Amino acid sequence: MISDSDALKIAEKIEDADNIDIKMTIEKAATAGYLGEKHFYCTVIEEGGLTHIVPEIFGDMNKSMPLDNLYFDIISKALDHEGIYISLAYCASNLFIPDDKCSEIIEYDDYDLDEDEYEYMVEYALITADEIKKFRVYAEEGIASPGRTDDVGLMVNIIDGHYKAYFALRSTDQCMSSFRVLPFGMDYQKEHPLSLKNPINKILIEMIGKTLVLKNE
Length: 217
Fold this sequence. Notes:
Number of helices: 5
Low-confidence stretches: none
Shape: globular
Distance between the termini: 26 Å
């Protein structure tokens, strides 16, 4: 597993990257439908951190919309205002995926409690458009993962003519029609679901780094 410092370096490199190909990254992310479900590719952020899918802007939340010129025209306009959020990675607990379908199986080894205090092993499937990994950790360690309806990705907008990106979690519940975007930070403890030191987030950050499409590369 990568270290805290390596995860921070990847995050800072992506956050400072001015050559993210937004269109191709969204098109690539759209191939990583979670558990066979069609996901929303990317969402437009409004003031306060709530986001809306593009069809919702046209008054029909349930309408299927192709990734065409109109779609990307809306995305382009949003980048100049509050920005967009691109879904790039998913985490699901106890999802059965054969080991041979995973590019890597990672077992957490930085435990704080005594060995006899651990009883329940949790296995997480971490999914991007490029790969699937497994992460195993004892539940008693208290490491929080994204929720069942959450995903991890990037908030992106344009500041002074340059892209600025931030790792974030997009969250909802059954009572909300809109998603809320919550940025990651270094100030949280490693157990926190928004911590850059959280081992699940560190793995997802590394995976997202490989998923992004950059211009001139």
